[in-house]
Amino acid sequence: MKAITFVTQKGGSGKSTLCISLAVAAQEAGANVCILEMDRQATVSDWAEHRQSETPEVAQVDETQLADVMRVLQGSAYDYVFIDTPGVDSPGTLSAIRAADLCIIPCRPTPADLRAFKPTLAAIYRLEKRFAFVLNQTPPRSYRNRDAADGLAVLGVLPDVNVVARTDHQDAIGLGKGVTEYNPSGQAAQEIRKLWAWIEKRASASTDKRTQVTKHVKAA
Ligand SMILES: Nc1ncnc2c1ncn2[C@@H]1O[C@H](COP(=O)(O)OP(=O)(O)O)[C@@H](O)[C@H]1O
Ligand SMILES: [Mg+2]
Do β-strands 33-37 and 57-60 pair in parallel, antiparallel, or remain unpaired? Predict the structure, then answer.
């Protein structure tokens, strides 16, 4: 089981939106997924209440519960646990980063968003976690995307897909759906499927590396 944490201090950058639609896309790709929600704003729980399907399962947890919940989930049938965090730097955010195999930092191509993730990145570095940025709510084509991508690529890894600002994302969440369920052939759905394929690969790479280190230590 791998944990993927969606994290950045900046509210509105798309943590919950990406967490939800990527969880649904991961399910559609054959994975067992659950979502742990650490944000009291409860965007994901509200979404789940509007949803017809029972999956992905969503549970609210706080920082006092997270480590224990993760320990129990290690032995479960889940392939992925997605952790959605609040838009503030809090003990909960730190524990969610600590629990992660991979942190996803959604970022709009705006100066405010590009400044806002710095404390998050510092915490991720401190805890030696793997991470990737995702450019979200971008214009379809703009020099802004290229400039932001160039800036982010200096600091870390960036997928080969941006998530463009599209109303499908807003409409899907309102109806308790992922964007791939709401409009399967739409461009928003295609971007999310491509993004999930990239994230899945990167999440496996992190585990493989750790397994190798563990093997080496055991062999020594
Ligand atoms: N790619 C996108 N296209 C259009 N709207 C988006 C997109 N990503 C997020 N949004 C919208 O932006 C707002 C904030 O997104 P949200 O996921 O709640 O951010 P966060 O969880 O980081 O605070 C929501 O209204 C959501 O519908
Ligand atoms: Mg949110």
Answer: parallel
Instruction: For residue 203, name the pLDDT band (cuts at 50, 70, 90).
Output: very high
- The rounded distance, in Å, linking the Cα atoms of 119 and 3 is 21
Q: What angle do CA 174, 90, 77 make, to 5 degrees?
A: 60
CATH number of the domain bearing residue 64: 3.40.50.300
Q: How far is CA 186 from CA 21, 28, 47, 136, 192, in A?
A: 13, 16, 21, 16, 10
**Range of the structural domain that residue 69 is part of:** 2-219
- DSSP assignment letter at 156: S
In which residue are the tokens 């519960």 written? 65
The ligand 1 site (C-beta within 6 Å) comprises: 11-17, 43, 87, 136-137, 163, 165-166, 169-170, 173
Could you tell me the sign of the dihedral formed by the alpha carbons of 90, 93, 145, 139, in that order?
negative
Query: Where residue 154 falls among pLDDT bands split at 50, 70, 90?
Result: confident
Burial 115-139 (b: 16+ CB within 10 A, else e): ebbeebbebbeeeebbbbbbbbbbe
State how many domains the chain has: 1
Q: Which atom of ligand 1 is nearest to the CA of 43?
A: 18
pLDDT at 212 over 70: no
